[in-house]
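Assemble and predict.
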Amino acid sequence: MTIDPTFAPLAELIPDPTDISEPFWKGLNDKTLRLQRCGKCDTHQHPPERFCYSCGSDSIEWATASGGGEVYSFIVVHQPYHAAFRDRIPYVVATVQLDEGPRMLGAIFDVDPNSISIGMRVQARIETVSEQQAALFFEAEVQ
Amino acid sequence: MKGFEGRYCIVGVGQTPYGKVPEISQLGHNVLAIRNAIEDAGLTTNDIDGILTKAPTSTFPMLWAPKVAEALKITPKVTGTLDQAGASNIGLIQYAISALAMGQANYIAISYGDNPRSGTRASYSRPRGDDAIAGLFGAPSSYAMIARRHMYEYGTTHDQLANVAIAHRHHASMNPNAVFQEPITREDYENSRFVAEPFRLLDCCPVSDGGAAYIITTEERAKDLEKEPVYIEGIGQGHPSWDFFRRDDLTRSGAAISGEAAFQNAGLGPKDIDFCEIYDCFTVVPLITLEEYGFCKKGEGGAFYEDQRTHIGGELPVNTSGGLLSETGMPGTQLVVEAVRQIRGEGGPRQVKNAEVGLVSQQGGIMTTHATMIVSKG
């Protein structure tokens, strides 16, 4: 497995998957974004849980998401809050409204921050950060 | 105040030095602020039979209120530590009033004290668990996400955010307790560095050490004390809860619900308010709060801050001591202290004329919790 050296510092921010969250992280290793879907009310949700946040049902399934969404809001981080992101500054963090419904936070790298705007289409960008794990980022959708 | 037969008052306020204060411990800020509030009320520690505390932000010690009681040599009948972050300081007053109404205590001290500036400030920027990889650290980043959406939906401008920073600093310039007393200009704002766009450094409150406290009692007991009591007219709470970015509308806070509850509880409305002390951890927050309270329409908070309307002497003075942005970045206890001083007429050069009814707004987390209190001369 080859790991892009610019992504390697981010490995320390990967949490230990739990029984509940493991399918999400394994999905990323398969280059897919997986979300939970309620078998009863059909609502997609993230973060994962044993039950549906909307209706309380425990008939939770995992579904492959499109990875597409749009920027609901975003910031450009200049403050070096964490060593793992120091070489990325300034970088964009977006609140992404996924097409399936849930909102997620995600970093958008390798882009002019001035080119990002609310409402623009983005797509999941899954990158390997360590021997064990890939992680979720976003990038502008190719028109 | 509806719901209780009697009336309840704030009879003493106290504080410790704000800013970088390495010589006072976390415990010390609580104890010294309470002692100062007890003295201000004309009471002694022996009179205090309730100790309520907001959990410190920088560390989270268990059984904190009993620890504070020990350091005051008090064996209280009522204690408790509330975890509503910055809204706790009003939530605790609601708890105190309940205890007083039930006859469980006579004089209750409420405090917050912490030393994140000279101790550890890690809690303000720790990684967000499973979301850490997204690169969102620190309260400024989260509130900046809210500000960006507010700017997008309502056309709120950097100039309008600057107005908030400038206005609150103007008030702090008349407050000898304030951490930042040097007035700032629009140019100063524009020259301050970006932290997390759209926020610059001057959009953000400082991390500060300090403590503040107040004493709550019944009207009957309050009338026996030397200083004029400040009456608690109404309290309301409203908690958006949820992680901020998953809420339906990022530009809304709990102020609408908590404000309506407080106004109903007091039998008053926005027109009755002479001044406001509003939780202003970041410049966008007072804009949103004033909108949600109904002082202006949704989206018009930026315009409300124009033409020095919120300055002392203006239509609705807001944050007369400088607020979190300029007086001290502590999570809100100090706003109650300032409201009491204004009602008493102790504001000195920053005194609001005819300050008879004041509103205090508090919130915690990323607009996760919210509480509102209305106080008056009675």
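The two ends of chain B are 11 Å apart (CA to CA).
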